[in-house]
Amino acid sequence: MKNNEMRIRKLDSSVLVAKEEPFSCEVLSKLLEREGFDVVGRANELDDLIQKIHTKKPKCVIVEANLIGKETNHLLKELSEASSRPKLVLFFNTSNSKELTKALDANFNGYLYSDDRLEELYKCLLYIQTQSKYYSDGFKDLMKRLGVNEVDSDTQKKLKTLTKREKQILYLVTEGLTGHEISDSLCISYRTLANHKQNLIQKLGIDSNRQLLKFALQIKSYINTL
Question: pLDDT-based confidence at 155, cuts 50/70/90?
Fold first, then answer.
């Protein structure tokens, strides 16, 4: 009974595979089909991927980070206009902390690392049918190695309310600069700096300058992308 239920769930999860290298894309598609997933399309370029999302209407898209490149916002905008938005699983294949933070900020449904085994992908595809987010063990290990913490949507919203100056101050706080060093660096008075810090504390919903430092250090890699 359990195996039959699993087979139905796989067939119900129509998948579109998007990888830059055609041969690799074809191989992964065949492996997914052999495992029982319904592969409805393949894409090797971003424009082709977007077109097939609209025409094939897959329930899930497996996309390689290299294929998206710097066009993540473009892809997300197109998805927002789709009649039925698919779940997105990202294959991340670099060790760049800035790119990793941007990928997390894009809020995909599943995150896999290039070193993951195929079983991890199968598990992810089934998991995101009923759950909101999946991180493979390989991806979580990469986050740990690069010192990147996931920033939740509530924190992202708070950070978007910050002014350019407040973002600069938050970054300099993580660099270990004293108040006087920060004010000198930004050519502002110490009193003006104190006012900016108070605004930061209020906007971020924290209690003190000490908490501000702790908060900033926890999301340091993310701050670098603001």
Answer: confident
Report how far residue 59's alpha carbon sits from residue 86's, in angstroms, rounded to the nearest whole number: 5
Q: Tokens standing for 183? A: 């004010």
Amino acid letter, 212? L
Q: What is the pLDDT of residue 92?
A: 93
pTM over 0.70: no
Q: Identify the DSSP state of 176.
A: T
C-alpha to C-alpha distance for 68 and 63, rounded to whole angstroms: 8
Which of 84, 82, 75 has its CA nearest to residue 108?
75
pLDDT digits (tens, 9 = 90+) for 189-206: 999 999 999 999 999 999
Q: What is the DSSP string of 13-71?
A: SEEEEE-SSHHHHHHHHHHHHHHT-EEEEEESSHHHHHHHHHHH--SEEEEEHHHHTT-
Report how far residue 28's alpha carbon sits from residue 174's, in angstroms, rounded to the nearest whole number.
42
- What is the C-alpha separation between 19 and 183, in angstroms, rounded? 48
Alpha helix (H) residue ranges in the chain? 2-11, 22-35, 46-56, 65-68, 72-80, 97-105, 118-127, 137-146, 153-160, 164-174, 179-186, 190-204, 209-218, 220-223
Number of neighbouring beta carbons within 10 Å of residue 210:
9
Helix (H, G, I), strand (E, B) or coil at 123: helix
7-41 pLDDT, tens per residue? Answer: 545 556 799 999 999 999 999 999 999 988 999 99
